[in-house]
Design goal:
alpha/beta; 6 helices
Length: 153
């Protein structure tokens, strides 16, 4: 799977290690341009990862900042992105099965590397369930298009 990874300075070390780990597990994982240990603003890597996913350059994205909140907010501004802030394995699973999340947002300050590794494994290994959840995904797409989601069948 092709995975775009980005972080601000607070997530730099974790995302660098994560990219290598994912490559060892036969994923085509890469850091988006500008990921650096130097102080930087989280909307920049969030936008780059989100745009890579929205344009289908990458199948999934992973973002890390101090809390994960900032990158989640920024990534969700890009049409076609369903970024989920996840703090545990169950939320990772449900973000995929129910919401078809395509960008995983994580806290570099609040989660251990072991927890992050497990969350990433679940997120990447879980498929969208479809069914009743498909209509809800279409409703989100309607919102992005400026339409009333209640009109989606």
């Amino acid at each position: 799977m092709k995975i775009a990874i980005g972080a601000d300075h607070r997530g730099f070390e974790i995302c660098s290690r994560l990219a290598v780990r994912l490559q060892l597990h036969n994923h085509e994982a890469y850091l988006v341009p500008g990921v650096t240990p130097e102080r930087c603003d989280y909307p920049v890597p969030a936008s780059r990862v989100a745009r890579a996913v929205a344009s289908h350059e990458a199948e999934r994205g992973i973002l890390i900042c101090g809390t994960g909140i900032g990158v989640s907010i920024a990534a969700n501004k890009v049409a076609g992105v369903r970024a989920a802030l996840v703090n545990d394995e169950l939320s990772a699973e449900l973000s995929r099965t129910h919401n078809d999340a395509n960008v995983l947002c994580l806290s570099g300050d609040l989660l251990s590397e072991q927890v992050i590794d497990r969350i990433v494994e679940v997120f990447l290994g879980t498929e969208f369930e479809g069914g009743r959840h498909e209509r809800r995904r279409r409703q989100i797409e309607a919102i992005e298009a400026g339409q009333d989601p209640s009109e989606v069948e």
